[in-house]
Amino acid sequence: MVGDRLTRFAHELANKFTLYFDVYRDEQISDFPLAFIAHYKRRDERYMVTKKMKVYGVENQQLVFATVANEPVSLPFVRRFQDVIDHYKHQFIQEHTEHMSTIVLGLIIADGKLDDAVLKEVRRFRKVKFLKFGWHGWIETYIAILHPNQKNVHIHPKGRSFVKSIETLMREDKISL
User: Fold this and answer.
1) If 99 and its partner were Cys, which of 7, 88, 137, 155 is the partner (CB 3.0–4.6 Å)?
2) Distance CA 166, CA 11 (A)
3) Measured distance CA(108)–CA(124) in Å, rounded
4) Domain coordinates in residue numbering, the chain
């Protein structure tokens, strides 16, 4: 019963992402089930006089991996989710000179009480990887735990801005269980 509500919440959340993101639902990555993967890609270019004289171009991306935790969230579950994201995110990221930044969010949709060790791990987890010494951009990775019942989100403080819209949707009951 709880799993059905969380799955429905994940489905509604994926529907909110479809406006700007490419959403792939019910993905399976090396026997790890994901509710959805959302991919956003933005490209900006600056021209001199015509489009044939390009000065520079930059690409920004955002990836969201979401999973539903039907059992209580444990530290091994969080670490395994981090590893799955770490191995799979490179399929979406192309390392070239116009790539500027990629933000990767791992969303764990959970219900119930969380361990202090799990909360500490999630609030401390931020991984920044520079591609070719920063010349080809960087990748930032965050893990967040969403509590639809309590309407709160646990994430590293620097990643708070990336889940602010999700927090607002949960507080205003635009996404509910």
Assistant:
1) 137
2) 13
3) 15
4) 2-171
- The backbone torsions φ and ψ at residue 30, rounded to the nearest 5 degrees and listed phi first, read 40, 65
Specify the DSSP element, H or E, that contains 157. Answer: none
pLDDT per residue as tens digits for the range 53-79: 766 666 788 999 999 988 888 899 999
Three-state DSSP class for residue 93: coil
Tokens describing residue 48: 């001199």
Could you tell me where the beta strands, DSSP code E, fall in the chain? 22-29, 32-47, 54-68, 99-109, 126-130, 138-147, 152-154
Instruction: Residue 20: count other Cβ atoms within 10 Å of its Cβ.
Output: 12
Q: Model's pTM, two decimal places?
A: 0.85
- What is the C-alpha to C-alpha distance for residues 56 and 126, in angstroms, rounded to an integer? 29
- Identity at 110, one-letter amino acid code: A
The one-letter amino acid at 104? V
CB 45 within 8 A of CB 60: no
Total number of residues shown for the chain: 177
